[in-house]
């Protein structure tokens, strides 16, 4: 998909794009099956939804500790390569997404207006699976026009106030892709209201359909492909939400050079530490047992944890070296 083709899916006047039927029904069924087969311990339970993180964890310093994506994202149905082929990530550091958050929304669940922040390149691509949803873009009230740090601010005390009326509202069908970039990423918030159904007032050739309770127009109504959704837009109706899975795909700009331990051999670790060939089992600060590989620099070590090998500095507490352990 080149830029010209992508422009056919642009929401007029906004740096937002809606692509219906981005994945087929068979691909959707396959992805949902893979998601539901995931072990329970992979899920993180939040107050209003649960999620999984694929591609690695992000540190407090906004650095990605990269891990391999699940096979069903890298191979069939080729979600990652296909997103790269859209061209929206062409100017990002890695020219494609390297981080995916899977959200599971039950009927009645949503997410408050928020920004994704400066950790990511200002492009986000979200695939919807299983059920429709309604996606709102918001802006801060004019008095709070400039975000100090790019983080989300709740529409209540302690943060910048958010205009309660959405700037733009999109109806997201199952199997669709929505892309936000540029000012829609950097200057706007986005969210999903907590509701189990969406009541739609019909539109006509001159007037878009609206969400009855909010009175906001559905901007992408002419782009929809599903018969049920199109009928609701033309005649009005109530659409019940089901279980929805969203794949939110972004490019984390800063990635740690530390290689996941699961894929690093002892020989690789040794070569990265001035040719010292053995790990040492040590008693570190507070008596914690650690395994370290000394470097040529005083108090610097390669620290082995269950997941990563990282360069560690112990400044305040001496290390008591115990028996040497061959790798």
UniProtKB/TrEMBL annotation:
It comes from the Eukaryota. One of its GO terms (molecular function) is metal ion binding. InterPro entries: AlkB-like, AlkB-like_sf, ALKBH6, Oxoglu/Fe-dep_dioxygenase_dom. GO terms for cellular component: nucleus. Gene3D superfamilies: Alpha-ketoglutarate-dependent dioxygenase AlkB-like. Transmembrane segments: none annotated. It is found in: Nucleus. Keywords: Dioxygenase, Iron, Metal-binding, Nucleus, Oxidoreductase. Residues 96-211 form the Fe2OG dioxygenase domain. Belongs to the alkB family. This is 2OG-Fe(II) oxygenase superfamily protein. It comes from Lyophyllum shimeji.
């Amino acid at each position: 998909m080149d830029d010209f083709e992508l422009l056919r899916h642009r929401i007029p006047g906004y740096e937002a794009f809606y692509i219906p039927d981005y994945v087929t029904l068979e691909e959707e069924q396959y992805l949902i099956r893979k998601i539901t087969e995931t072990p329970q311990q992979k899920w993180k339970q939040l107050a209003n939804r649960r999620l999984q993180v694929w591609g690695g964890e992000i540190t407090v310093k906004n650095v990605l500790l990269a891990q391999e994506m699940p096979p069903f994202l890298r191979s069939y149905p080729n979600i990652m390569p296909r997103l790269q082929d859209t061209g929206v990530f062409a100017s990002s550091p890695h020219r494609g997404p390297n981080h995916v958050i899977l959200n599971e929304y039950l009927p009645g669940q949503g997410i408050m207006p928020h920004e994704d922040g400066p950790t990511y390149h200002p492009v986000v691509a979200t695939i919807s699976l299983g059920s429709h949803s309604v996606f709102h873009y918001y802006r801060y009230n004019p008095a709070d026009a400039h975000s100090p740090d790019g983080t989300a601010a709740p529409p209540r005390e302690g943060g910048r106030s958010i205009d309660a009326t959405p700037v733009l509202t999109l109806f997201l069908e199952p199997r669709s892709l929505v892309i936000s970039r540029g000012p829609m990423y950097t200057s706007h918030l986005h969210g999903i209201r907590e509701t189990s159904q969406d009541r739609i007032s019909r539109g006509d050739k001159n007037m878009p359909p609206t969400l009855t309770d909010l009175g906001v127009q559905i901007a992408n109504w002419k782009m929809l492909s599903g018969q049920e959704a199109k009928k609701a837009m033309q005649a009005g109706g109530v659409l019940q939400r089901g279980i929805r899975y969203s794949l939110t795909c972004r490019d984390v700009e800063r990635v740690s050079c530390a290689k996941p331990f699961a894929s690093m051999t002892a020989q690789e670790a040794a070569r990265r530490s001035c040719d010292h060939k053995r790990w040492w089992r040590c008693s570190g600060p507070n008596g914690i047992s650690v395994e370290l590989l000394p470097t040529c620099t005083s108090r610097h070590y390669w620290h082995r944890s269950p997941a990563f090998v990282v360069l560690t500095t112990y400044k305040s507490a001496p290390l008591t070296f115990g028996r040497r352990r061959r790798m």
